[in-house]
From TrEMBL:
Binds 2 Zn(2+) ions per subunit. The active site is at 100 (proton acceptor). Pfam families: Peptidase_M20. It comes from Erythranthe guttata. Keywords: Metal-binding, Signal, Zinc. Its cofactor is Zn(2+). This is Peptidase M20 dimerisation domain-containing protein. Zn(2+) binds at residues 101, 315. InterPro entries: Aminoacylase-1_M20A (IPR052083), Peptidase_M20 (IPR002933).
Amino acid sequence: MMYQWRQSYHRYQSAVLMAIAIVLLLLLPAAMGDENSRSIISRFQEYLRPISSPPKPSPSHWTPKFWSWYRASHLFSSSGPAITRLSSTSGTTPLSMPDEEIGGHDGAEKFALGLASPTQNYRVFYGERCPWWLVLKATLYDNTAMENLLKSIETVRRFRASQFDLVKAGHKAEGEVISVNMVFLKAGTPSPTGFVMNLQPSEAQAGFDIRVPPTADVVSLERRIAEEWAPATRNMTFEFKQKGSTYNKFGKQILTAFDSSNPWWALLEDAIKSADGELGKPEIFPASTDARYFRELGLPAIGFSPMANTPILLHDHNEFLNKNEYLRGIHMYESIIKAYASYVEPTKDEASRAEL
């Protein structure tokens, strides 16, 4: 049941992105014919069918555990009912794409989110940290490959601690520092019973998941990796399995403006307020979402999910959303989609008069 629940929650994340994509479709010129559009809708309906009819015991049997699973399996529909209410009058066409959890390379990337809040204010994000997946490689030099690698691991550990000290001291938010987490160690010579115990490995590797905020000095970080974490003087080498850019294709930082220069920000604020909601202080998302693919193209993506008064249990056990927050989220999405879909960009003359 937990596996079933997790898959359902991941579909919810795709649905959140789907809501964003709907808005983009309303703003971009139509690129597909009617026949192709109908085909997409049919596939989308097939996609939803396996999770649209879960078991429905009587309310008297809805234990807290079952209700947590049941509502999680229906979280994706927070935006669905809002779209349904609006589609009859606006002609909105939904777009489905592969899950963000598998990287988004076959989804949002080729088409060109938010986080729970324990307070009553909705969290909103104007940027996010970019993933750098780094592998350090050590070979025999002076001592052993393992000793060589461990020196670098200790250097990385001290840097990691210094970044977290900034957060613990309140100088920076979690999304504003560089995080480094070691994810694997690889060394040794395999044998039928495990490893050969009397043979020094000639190579040792360590993998790190690094998340870099768009405000970071990436040149300094790259120099640190080359000179301190994998110095050539110790026969160390490194490679990136993935290295996200902190700049968009126009050479600007991948950040979305959250002031009067960005009309989409004002629309979001007004839509949330009109639905009796409140936004918190704009933040940099501490992880990575599909929004990065839109920002890389220069599109002003805003990370948002209507999940207030909810503990942050991202990928944790029993991740849930209160039923009242779920129903309130439908109202929020309806307000946001309506505001975005009805927005008409002012002409240059109108913009000039507004400035005066």
